[in-house]
Fold:
Amino acid sequence: MQTRTEGDAAQVPRQKRGFIERYLSVPPLRRQQVYYAILFIAPGLAIYLVFMLYPFLNTIYLSFTNWNGATVTKDFVGLSNYARMLGDAAVLKAFFNNVIWVIIGTISPVVIGLFLALLLWSGTRGSLTFRTIYFLPFILPLVVVALVWQWIFHPLFGPVNKLLDSFGLEQLSRGWLGDPNTALYAVLISAIPGATGFVVMVLFAALQNVDVSQVEAAKIDGANWFQRAWYIVIPQLAPVITMVTAITLIGGFAVFDNVFVMTGGGPGHASEVLGTYTYQVAFQQNQAGYGSALAVLMTVLSLVSAIVFVRLRERQSNGT
Amino acid sequence: MAREAQSQRIAGGAPRNWLAAFGKYLVLLLFAALSLYPLLLIISTSLKDPLDVTADPFALFSSFNPVNFYDAWTLGGFGGYFWNTVVITTISVVSVVALSSLAGYALARFHFPGSNIVFFIFILGLMIPFFSVMIPLFYELKNLSLLGTKAAVILPAIAGAHGFGLPLGVFLMRSFYMDLPEELADAARVEGANEFQVFRRIMLPLSMPGVAVLAVLVFFQTWNNFLLPLVYLQGSENQMLASGLYLFAGGRTGEYELAAAGSLIMVVPVVIFFLIFQRYFIRGLTAGAFK
Structure:
């Protein structure tokens, strides 16, 4: 009986009864729905609360303790973990490196990606092939990307040094990842193709919504390619450009994989970022309390930058 | 597509002369080369003869030794990493999709007190980076004797620790279900279906495009994720490809050809999956970017 009506319902949902008859026969749903709501939500909510929200609150709590991960008691130390950060040269270095990462690692993919997307949009053969190729580095596992770039910067066999040698620029070749002056930038380069591919993909999709009549008009008025791009197309893309900038930028504070695999934050702390340092403090030095404080700092940084961008975007959409 | 072609014809406008056109394709090809080069370098290195590796590991395609894949799979341990990754990713994807659909549907369609609060609590997870749960979660999993087991990656992945779990899923599926017409559900109720049957037989099939987008995003995030297995599977036999590759490359610096073959074992499924499901993947990411 039950299964038959169920099958009927799936196949011929509307044809059997008229609207009024159907409306009258619907049972009072509210009470039943509360029961089903609990049934539907509880499993997911339970996993989410236990493995996400609870550890999140715990991080905040631990950041006020000096717990080392092993003792039973956790001594409350107030804000001293946060005070310690200010005097920790490695934190300052890591923060500074994060800022460099955020600035260069955001501006270059957005600028290059915007330029490539515009080139592809202006009547290019094989546009889909180019887009797919540009997008490939974005879908590759970061561990693999980092490993390959480690090879590319290899002091002896690396293609970068080979290329410099072949142009007679031997004096420039070096151990890019072992040199404190270049380590961070070498790692940063490994992250740029992937981020650029993402920007190209999103901006190219957004370009499909650009008002073409304006561009056409500007063309008739004699505006060249750069003028049309700068004055007509880019302003229409502005909200999406803000959005990809925000996504890339917020990710910049949580960067870990590339740095950890390529240099481990070294040499010394030369390429240290907050992510690698937090990992090191928490799991190699077992300072769960101090590590948690660093994690809170990272969270605050990405939240603040997210909020700044949401505000910026609101202002943008109010303006237009 | 037609629209795209039209916009290309009218709007962009071809560069005025052949020099500009040449410059344009030169730039496009240069960046394409930069994007493809790392992948080519992996493929080339993975096919290298061990002798050739000691001479010059990174010269492109100078020898052909496919036995490396067999060696990486067996001696390198990548076969085991591969199956662990397959199991962990599959369970994570199926669980996120199932639990998000259920919760998203209930939040979109059922009237009950506190539904907004529950939704807000889920959405909060979108703003929590992994680092801010990483440390206590380690000790929590340790206390539950889950550290080193597949569950140590699966449960946090479902919960959203790596970014694309329940918070994103509930958000996506809820907005998807809100757009479906309520009359369909009413009709089924009239026919005597209970709420679960309405969901399972009517609404879930209609939400398949949303499910596909979510499944593809979770697949990529779980397969590629490095930190979760690095922290929670340390020294375990359940190692995944990402952490296994890191350990292998860090431990045996000389065997570039095997590290490359291992990388390729990890990359090939990702690329195949991407080429098949490109549409859903890009839809998911652009939807996120436009919101």
